[in-house]
Predict the structure of DUF3082 domain-containing protein.
Amino acid sequence: MTPSPPDSAPGDSSRPRHGPLRYLAGALSSGLFAVLSWLVAERLVVHFTLHPPHYSKPVAQSIAVGLKTILVGTSFLAVFSFSLIAVGLSLLLVRSLLPSAGR
């Protein structure tokens, strides 16, 4: 067996190092998905505001309101998730571009 170089940990040879370009691409794509999710969420809110469900049966009305709540909530959860990821990757990008004293 040949020993690995002292500056690399075992098992790290196959993993590529993440650089600023990957952080930038991830932040931009996640930001794009956040904007698209926002547009979808906005259209859902406008649609359900202009066309509220009206059913004569209480069970059907309850199911329609529940489905509306799930759709709107999920769309805004996607907006929040993609936005948070974009902010985190942007901070990693800034951190990777700053010179560090410990490296």
In short: Residues 20-97 form one domain. Residues 58-97 form the longest helix (40 residues). The CA atoms of residues 22 and 35 lie 20 Å apart. The two ends are 30 Å apart (CA to CA).
